[in-house]
Amino acid sequence: MNNIGLKSEYTEEVSGKLNAYLSSLQISYMNVRGFHWNIVGKQFFVLHAKFEEIYNQLNEMADEVAERILILGGKPLHSFSEYLKISEINEQTNVSSAEDTVKYLLQDTKKLLAIEREILSFSSEHGDEGTVSMLSGYIEEQEKMIWMLNAALK
User: Fold this and answer.
1) At 17, is the secondary structure helix, strand, or coil?
2) How many CA within 13 A on the CB side of residue 135?
3) What is the Cα 123 distance to its own chain's centre?
4) Is residue 22 a contact partner of residue 66, using CB atoms and an 8 Å limit?
C-alpha cells in the first residue's frame, strides 16, 4: 500500500495512464495556444478570447493531473519530447481559419474525453475516488465543450 492506502501496483499503472493523459493535455494546450495566436477572419475576436479561456483551462487541468500523479507516488513527465512520444493528440501547426481551428479542437477534445473515460473506469475499479472525482469534473466539461464546438460548426 502507498501513503494514501492504494495498492502500489495500481498506483504505478494509473500514474502511467495519467502521464499519457498529461502528455495529451499539454499538446492540446499548445495547439490551442497556437490557434489563439494565429486565428484570422471574421470570428477573430470571439475565437481569440475563447481560445485563451480554453488554454487556461487546459493548463489548470495539466497542473491538477501532475499533482495527482505526485499524490499517487509517481513522477509527472515534464518535457515536450516525452509528451510527443506518448500523446494521443498530434501537434497542429499553421492553422488559422475559424473552421479549421474549431475542427481540430473538437477532434482533440473528443480524444481527451475518451482518455478520461478510460482512466475513470480503471480508477473506479480500484477504489481510487480521488482520481475518479477529478476526471468526473473533466468529463462534464469536455462533453459541454464538444456540444458547443459542434454547434459552432453548423
Assistant:
1) helix
2) 25
3) 17
4) yes
**8-152 topology per CATH:** Ferritin (1.20.1260)
* C-alpha to C-alpha distance for 123 and 117, rounded to whole angstroms: 10
Classify burial at 50, counting beta carbons within 10 Å of its beta carbon; exposed 0-12, middle 13-18, buried 19 or more. Answer: buried
Positive or negative CA dihedral for 89, 6, 60, 66?
negative
Span 14-52, pLDDT tens digits? 999 999 999 999 999 999 999 999 999 999 999 999 999
At 119, phi and psi to the nearest 5? -70, -35
Nearest to 72 by CA among 114, 132, 32: 132
Domain ranges of the chain: 8-152
pLDDT tens digits, 68-81: 999 999 999 999 99
Q: Using CB atoms within 10 Å of the CB of residue 115, give its burial: 0 to 12 exposed, 13 to 18 middle, 19+ buried.
A: buried
**Sign of the C-alpha dihedral computed for residues 53, 56, 60 and 62 taken in this order:** positive
